[in-house]
Amino acid sequence: MLLENLESSLYVEEPANVARYAEAFERLTASALPFERSLSRITQLKEREK
């Protein structure tokens, strides 16, 4: 598994660690808003700041 950020990247190869990162990604994906709702929410916040 390749993890990237703004300054570096990291290869995770140990199966237990790959599983832990995969589980975390699944939880984040499950809790994220759908695209259209995210866009709507960002637009609302942007309008509030004007």
Count of discrete structural domains = 1
Mean pLDDT: 95
How far apart the termini lie comes to 41 Å
**Outline:** elongated
Radius of gyration using CA atoms only = 16 Å
Q: Biggest sheet, in brief? A: 2 strands, antiparallel
**How many DSSP H or I helices?**
2
Low-confidence stretches: none
The residue fraction in helices comes out at 55-70%
Q: What is the SS-derived class?
A: alpha+beta
Q: In percent terms, what proportion of residues is strand?
A: 5-15%
The H-and-E topology, N to C, reads as: EEHH
Which sequence of strands runs across the widest sheet?
A: 1-2
Query: What is the tally of beta strands?
Result: 2
Structural description of this entry:
This protein is α+β, with helices and mostly antiparallel strands. It has one domain (2-48). Helices cover 62% and strands 12% of the residues. The protein has helices at residues 15-31, 35-48, and strands at 2-4, 9-11. It has a two-stranded antiparallel ribbon with strand order 1-2. β1 (2-4) and β2 form a beta hairpin. The chain is elongated and about 45 Å long. The model has no long low-confidence stretch (mean pLDDT 95).
Descriptive keywords:
50 residues, alpha+beta, 2 helices
Per-chain topology:
Layout: E1 2-4, E2 9-11, H1 15-31, H2 35-48
Antiparallel strand pairs: 1-2
Q: In a nutshell, what does this entry contain?
A:
With 50 residues, the chain is α+β, with helices and mostly antiparallel strands. Helices cover 62% and strands 12% of the residues. The protein has helices spanning 15-31, 35-48, and strands at residues 2-4, 9-11.
